[in-house]
Specification:
about 475 residues; alpha/beta; Amidase signature (AS) enzymes; 11-stranded mixed beta sheet; 15 helices; about 40% helix; nucleotide-binding; Amidase; GatA
Length: about 475
C-alpha cells in the first residue's frame, strides 16, 4: 500500500475502510524494501508499533475520533521515544535509550498516533546535507547520488519515500525546510515556543524548534493541532493562537493577500531554474488576487555570520554534557580529565568538533564582546527588519535554497560552502518567526521549494496560505521514482 496524504488516510480510518494495523504493517514492508538504499531509519520497535496500532483500531471501532488516531509517524532521533535509542546520529550516545517521551511525542501517542521508527540525522543536528550522521548518510529518494538535505534527513526522506504520511524533525537554521525543499515535501518551522522542546536534545536552545513534516499543509495541521500548546516542562512554550482552526484546515482566500519579496533573497546566487519555478509559483498567488510587493530586509547580509556565531556558541555550552560520565560512550583512561577528553574525541564527529571549537572561541575571554555580543546585536537588527516588513505585507515568499539538491561530497571539504546552503533559511529563526517550505515544482527532474515566512504566531495563517496554494497546484503530489 503506497502512502497517501494523512488527510486521506484519516478519512479512510474514520470510515472503517482502512485499519491502523494494516497501514503499519505496510509501512514496515516498505521500510524493509527501500531503506537499504535510502538509509533513513536508525531504530524500530515493530512489536510496540503494532501493539499501538491495534489499540488505535480498538479506539476507532469504539467510535473515538482524533486528528491523528491510527496514523503512522516517524520521529527524528534527537526526540525521546521511551525505550528506544536516542543517538542524535552520534557514537557518543552509544547504548543510551530514552527514559521518557518528549512532550510532542507523548501528545501524539496519547491521541492515537503510531510511531514506527527513529529517523537518521546529521550528528546532533549539525549539517545541511544529511552526510554527517555517524552511522550512514541518508540518500535522496529522487536520486540516490544526491544529498537529501539536513539535518532532518531521515525524517524528510521517510515522508518523501512513503514510509509514513507524517514525521517529526527539528529545525534550528533550516533543518526541516531545506531537506523538504530537496525532497519535495512540506515542512513547518513553528513560531519559537509554539511546540514544546521537552525531550528534544538541545543543540542551540534559543533557535531549536520541533518541526512537523508531511506531504501537505493540511496533513501538518492534523498533527500540529494535537502537539501545540503550553507545556509546564518547557518554560519557553506558549499557546498557539487559532489552534482550533487547524482541523479541518481551510484554504485562505488569497484575494488581497500582500506577499513581500525580500530583494536580498533574489540576488545573485539563486539558480535560474529555481528562480523560474518561484516566479511561476508567485504567479499562482497573483492570479488569485494576491498583491506581490518588493520589500527589503537590509541586515540579511549579516544573517549567516550571526547565525553561526550564536549557534556554535550555544553548541559549545549544550554539548558539554556529553562527557562519558553519566551515560553513553565512555573511553578507558587513567584519569577523569583524560577520560572526558578521550570520550569526546572518540565519540564526536569532525563537524560537531568544529562547531564546538568555534563556539568555545566565540565565548572565550577577550573575544566574547567582539563576536557573541556583536552577533546578539545583529540578531536584534534582523528581527527589526522583519517587524518593519510586516507593517506593509502579510507574508514573505522566498527561495528555500539556491538550487536543487547537490551531489554527495560536493561541499564536505568546504565548510563555508556547506554553511551557505542555509543562506535563505537561517534568518527567520533568528527572529523566532514561523516559516514553511513547500514544493514549487521540478527543475531538471528534481524538487525545488518555496518558503513562506509569517509574523510571530501566524502559524495557522501560514498553513492556510500553503493549503490554498496546494489546492490550486499538484507539485506536492509528485513522487520520487523509489516511491512509485
Amino acid at each position: 500500500m503506497a502512502v497517501g496524504t494523512a488527510v486521506g488516510w484519516r478519512e479512510g480510518l474514520d470510515a472503517g475502510d482502512l485499519s491502523s494495523e494494516a497501514l503499519v504493517r505496510s509501512a514496515f514492508d516498505r521500510i524493509k524494501r527501500l531503506d537499504g538504499q535510502l538509509c533513513a531509519i536508525l531504530a524500530t520497535d515493530e512489536d510496540q508499533s503494532l501493539r499501538l496500532a491495534r489499540k488505535a483500531d480498538a479506539r476507532l471501532r469504539a467510535g473515538e475520533r482524533s486528528p491523528v488516531l491510527g496514523l503512522p509517524i516517524v520521529i527524528k532521533d534527537n526526540l525521546n521515544w521511551t525505550g528506544l535509542p536516542v543517538s542524535c546520529g552520534s557514537r557518543i550516545q552509544e547504548g543510551y535509550r530514552a527514559p521518557y517521551n518528549a512532550t510532542v511525542v507523548e501528545r501524539l501517542i496519547a491521541a492515537g498516533a503510531v510511531p514506527l521508527a527513529k529517523a537518521n540525522m546529521d550528528e546532533f543536528a549539525m549539517g545541511s546535507s544529511g552526510e554527517y550522521s555517524a552511522f550512514k548518510p541518508t540518500r535522496n529518494p529522487w536520486d540516490t547520488s544526491l544529498v537529501p538535505g539536513g539535518s532532518s534527513s531521515g525524517s524528510v526522506v521517510a515522508v518523501s519515500a512513503g514510509y509514513a504520511p507524517f514525521s517529526l524533525g527539528s529545525d534550528t537554521g533550516g533543518s526541516v525546510r531545506l531537506p523538504a525543499g530537496f525532497c519535495g515535501v512540506t515542512a513547518l518551522r513553528p513560531t519559537y515556543g509554539a511546540l514544546s522542546r521537552y525531550g528534544l536534545t538541545a543543540m542551540a536552545s534559543s533557535l531549536d524548534q520541533v518541526g512537523p513534516i508531511a506531504t501537505t499543509a493540511a496533513d501538518i495541521a492534523l498533527a500540529l493541532q494535537v502537539m501545540a500548546g503550553r507545556d509546564p516542562m518547557d518554560s519557553t512554550s506558549t499557546d498557539l493562537p487559532r489552534q482550533d482552526g487547524l482541523v479541518p484546515l481551510r484554504p485562505r482566500n488569497l484575494k488581497g493577500l500582500r506577499i513581500g519579496l525580500p530583494t536580498e533573497y533574489f540576488a545573485d546566487g539563486l539558480e535560474s531554474g529555481s528562480r523560474s519555478l518561484l516566479e511561476a509559483a508567485l504567479q499562482v498567488f497573483a492570479d488569485q488576487g494576491a498583491e506581490i510587493r518588493n520589500v527589503s530586509l537590509p541586515h540579511t547580509r549579516y544573517a549567516i555570520d550571526t547565525y553561526y556565531l550564536l549557534c556554535t556558541s550555544e553548541v559549545s555550552s549544550n554539548l558539554s554534557r556529553f562527557d562519558g560520565v553519566r551515560y553513553g560512550h565512555r573511553a578507558g583512561a587513567p584519569s577523569l580529565p583524560d577520560m572526558i577528553a578521550e570520550t569526546r574525541d572518540q565519540g564526536l564527529g569532525p563537524e560537531v568538533k568544529r562547531r564546538i571549537l568555534l563556539g568555545t572561541f566565540c565565548l572565550s575571554k577577550g573575544y566574547y564582546d567582539a563576536f557573541y555580543q556583536k552577533a546578539m546585536k545583529a540578531r536584534t537588527l534582523i528581527a527589526r527588519d522583519f517587524e518593519r516588513a510586516f507593517e506593509s505585507v502579510d507574508i514573505l515568499a522566498t527561495p528555500v535554497s539556491p538550487g536543487p539538491a547537490f551531489p554527495f561530497g560536493a561541499k564536505t571539504n568546504d565548510p563555508l560552502a556547506m554553511y551557505l546552503a542555509d543562506v535563505f533559511t537561517v534568518t527567520a529563526p533568528l527572529a523566532g518567526l514561523p516559516c514553511l517550505s513547500m514544493p514549487a515544482g521540478l527543475c531538471g527532474g528534481l524538487p525545488v521549494g518555496i518558503q513562506l515566512i509569517g509574523p510571530a504566531f501566524s502559524d495557522v495563517m501560514l498553513l492556510e496560505t500553503a493549503h490554498a496554494f496546494q489546492s490550486l497546484t499538484s507539485h506536492h503530489l509528485e513522487t520520487p521514482p523509489l516511491s512509485a
